[in-house]
Design goal:
By secondary structure, the chain is mostly beta strands.
């Protein structure tokens, strides 16, 4: 996972818009609803992402450059160019509100979709993958221990709820709520908590 260089911070680039945004951002608040029908998916995500270098500077009482907010606001347009992104607005102090909605179908030729980078990649905060054996895995990335300590140092906390509804046989799930009928629910309260669900849509 790519790491930011620092004078005091090393934080992972967790989401896949780093090529479009100056610096990187982390999903501080993340609410997601994913509905799977066979290999077809409908996904809605919203929340708040934070730019950790700004958060860290403010936490240490450091002054930001005069043009800092203007530079942060300038990243709205490239982020809005991402497929499915419907809202991306700078709200100050290194944070953006965002919302996106994407639908499609996993195929053997295109077996993976990620959010917010719909082409996939390891830096997304959620990924849906059709495996070679026909099962589907929905997961979020692991945050390295050193990065966890840095996030705690600057006071960035994770929150949100992820809901995944699907047809098929559950093979593995670490959801907080795993009903026999209805969506699996993850209550995101720490950066250590990951989403992992494997199911067979053909069973």
């Amino acid at each position: 996972m790519p790491i930011l260089s620092r004078n005091g911070l090393q934080l992972p680039v967790i989401i896949g818009v780093a090529a479009l945004l100056s610096g990187c951002v982390l999903p501080e608040e993340l609410d997601a609803d994913i509905v799977m029908t066979g290999y077809r998916y409908e996904a809605s995500l919203e929340g708040k992402v934070a730019e950790p270098r700004t958060i860290g500077a403010l936490a240490k009482g450091q002054a930001l450059p005069p043009n800092h907010d203007a530079q942060m606001k300038a990243q709205e347009a490239p982020a809005l160019a991402l497929p499915g992104m419907t809202h991306f607005a700078y709200v100050g102090e290194g944070r953006y509100d965002f919302a996106m909605k994407v639908d499609g179908e996993l195929s053997e030729a295109a077996p993976v979709v990620g959010f917010p980078n719909t082409k996939g990649g390891r830096n997304n905060f959620l990924t849906i993958r059709r495996e070679a054996d026909g099962t589907v895995v929905i997961s979020s990335p692991e945050v390295p221990p050193k990065a966890l300590a840095d996030l705690k140092e600057v006071g960035l906390e994770a929150s949100g709820t992820i809901s995944i509804e699907f047809d098929g046989k559950v093979l593995e799930s670490n959801a907080n709520d795993q009903p026999a009928d209805g969506p699996h629910i993850w209550n995101r309260r720490t950066w250590e908590e990951q989403v992992f669900l494997r199911f067979d849509p053909n069973a």
